[in-house]
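User: Can you predict the 3D structure for this chain?
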Amino acid sequence: MNKRIIESLRAGFPRGCRVELLRMDDPQAPPIGTRGTVIGVDDIGTIHVSWDNGSGLGVAYGEDDCRRIDNG
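Assistant: Here is the predicted structure, written as structure tokens:
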């Protein structure tokens, strides 16, 4: 994974920011529109989220999509 992409993801999705799920290609995915709090971004670009419904699935860079919903 490109280091600049990881740095950009970490800047755009800092720990504690709020996100909304737009797309996730996983049978265990939370429903689209589920909101959660970012725990962090790992070295392969996965945005780890504590979803409000209790799920802990990460948002995989290039496969899934979420948007930041707080004022950041």
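Strands lie at 18-23, 35-41, 47-51, 65-68. The CA atoms of residues 7 and 45 lie 9 Å apart.
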